Amino acid sequence: TVCFDQGxxxxxxxxxxxxxxxxxxxxxxxxxxxxxxxxxxxxxxxQAHNFASIPEGIPENSERIFLQNNQITLLLRGHFSxxxxxxxxxxxxxxxxxxxxxxxxxxxxxxDLGDNRYLRAxxxxxxxxxxxxxxxxxxxxxxxxxxxxxxxxxHNLQYLYLQDxxxxxxxxxxxxxLVNLSHLFxxxxxxxxxxxxxxxxxxxxxRLLIHQNQLQxxxxxxxxxxxxxTTLFLFNNSLSELQGECLAHLGALEFLRLNGNPWSCDCKxxxxxxxxxxxxxxxxxxxxxxxxxxxxxxxxxxxxEDYRNCSxxxxxxxxxxxxxxxxxxxxxxxxxxxxxxKEKGKERGVEHSLxxxxxxxxxxxxxxxxxxxxxxxxLIMFINYMEIYLQM
Length: 392
Prior knowledge:
The chain has 392 residues and is of the alpha/beta class. The protein has helices spanning 11-20, 244-248, 270-278, 312-315, 326-338, 341-354, 374-391; strands at 36-38, 43-45, 64-66, 74-75, 86-88, 96-97, 110-112, 135-137, 159-161, 183-185, 193-194, 207-209, 217-218, 231-233, 255-257, 263-264, 282-283, 288-290. The chain has a domain at 1-30. Strands 1-2-3-5-7-8-9-10-12-14-15-17 form a 12-stranded mixed sheet, with no helix packed on it. The chain is elongated, with a radius of gyration of 32 Å. The chain starts with 10 loop residues before the first helix and ends with a helix.
């Protein structure tokens, strides 16, 4: 059996040529019309031919299939065989993917579905069972949401491209099974918040790009599992504040981009300022939007004196708040709101003993030392004792 490239030489001509040479052959056409096929591994290349559907005649033993830049609209069960290792079908007009299209495709390693702008939705089981998948491209697919469990079981996935969609919200634990993921691209979406368990389980993540979204709020423990992260892009969002504790878990961080946000450089920015002051990696500018007297300044170059009017109670929840539980912080916040100014002064003393990064204690005292009026107290106690003794 001999397979020829029909796009270059018609089968009858080939047979006639070989017959003239006295050769007897059995001709089998095993490459789709207008496609080019290569053996070892079996590769089918059908890009940029305006196919409206998957071309017929793709050999069952095909491992690499290239169908990008066509007009394909549907992916259905039976279009491909489980021997497939690589599928590029980006830049088509796909509107629907049958959830069983890739059922039992245990050899599939790379799947590029990007730039199919009318796809808009995926079933939760679309990628179920793709145990060898290491790269998944879903950029520019018009996706507004991701169903729970869509990435379940993809333990070998290393690259996930979700940029330039319309995603507004990420469910908790959406990435929890992606323990080997190293690159997660989420930029160019419409995300407005990151929650505590948004990125839970991403223990090997190296790069996280979330720039050019609409982020206004990031939970203080949103990045708590990302201890190997080296690159974090948060620029061009709508962040006005970010707690220093958010970044405290990122011990391997090397590149941080925070520019293009309307930063508020009031007392609440103190923990971020303190973290940036100790950060030894590369960081963008962090330009203050407010208050007015700070407008245009870079948060990174502010001095401790710029926070001299910030009371301890205003920044208690900002600096090293991992020493408290969530309940403790909530109780502390309520406690502060009902105390007198005198009691707040006492609490600031306790705060200093817990957080070494707070301003120094008054002269003559230090964390853990006796009160500054201790001799006076001793004198009063001695006088009272003598009065009692003389009355005996």
